Structure formats: structure tokens, C-alpha cells
Amino acid sequence: MRSRNKKGVELAHMLGMKTYSQDYIDACRAKVEADLRAYRKQVGKAPSKEFEGRFFNDQVLLLDYMFVHRLTGIEGKDGNPLNEVRVLCNSILLNQGKLQVEKLPGWPNSAGASTKLTPEKSVLKLKVGDEVKLTEADFVLLCKAFFGEIERKYLEGGAP
């Protein structure tokens, strides 16, 4: 039996996503590209380093949020771009912007158990303890790798 709200409308329950439609992935990519265009238009050729870091750290949080319900069993723990985005988000939100891969004391959900994220394999090449402060170039590189991995692992019907 499915749940219904007070008006009798059937509710969808989303515990985890095994797949995403190409339309959804494309809409998310378009949102990110629109944000990049707006950033470039607003700041011109000389953005302040502080604003650039804040803006693109926030964009990483958005990137993860758009796919927050992805099943981690499909994602894996091998240091892929999806793991990197998840680690970056936890580092930004729970570790004062310092890269952390292991769980933080008192924050059991601050990292995935046994995630392997080495600087050599990661997109951004950050080391544990490094400040997470993305540049536009960092974000563009990370975003491309992230969407590629989303399509490779979660696209309905397989990769395009």
C-alpha cells in the first residue's frame, strides 16, 4: 500500500536511487552550467579569491545535493569523483573546510567507511588537512568528472 497525503495524492518514497534519467542528469548539468555563466558574467575576469572559493565550494554542495539519494553501493568506495564530491561536502560542512576522509569523532556520518581517496587518484589532488577552496578551474574539472561518473554508474538503461 502506498502512502497518501491529506489530499489523497499518492506519495513517492525515495530511500535511494539506483538510476537517474538522462533528462534529470541533463537538467542538473544545465543548472550547473547556468550558474557558471552567471558567475562569469558577474565577476568578469578578476574575481576575488574569497568570493571564488565560497561560490565554488557552494557549487560542490549543490552538485552533491542534486544526487544525494544515490545508492552508495553503486557509487563504490574506490576514490572516484562521486566519492570525492561527498568527501569535499563533508569537509566543507563538518570540518571547517579542511579535507578529511575518515570519520570525525562525534560525526558518524561524516565520511563513508573505508572510502579510499588518495591525492594521486583524486580529481583535485588535495591531501588530508588541505583547505577546501575551489577555483573555477577546479570546479569545472570536478564537475565534468562527477557527471561522467553519474552517467557511467547511474544512468537509466546504461551510459549514453
Structure description:
By secondary structure, this protein is mostly helical. It has one domain. The protein is built from 5 helices and no strands. The chain has helices at 22-43, 49-66, 72-75, 81-94, 136-154.
Task: Give the key terms.
0% strand; 160 residues; mainly alpha; 5 helices
Rg from Cα: 17 Å
User: What's the helical proportion of residues?
Assistant: 40-55%
The termini sit apart by 35 Å
Total number of helices: 5
Outline of the structure:
The protein is an all-alpha fold.
Write the layout of secondary structure elements.
Blueprint: H1 22-43, H2 49-66, H3 72-75, H4 81-94, H5 136-154
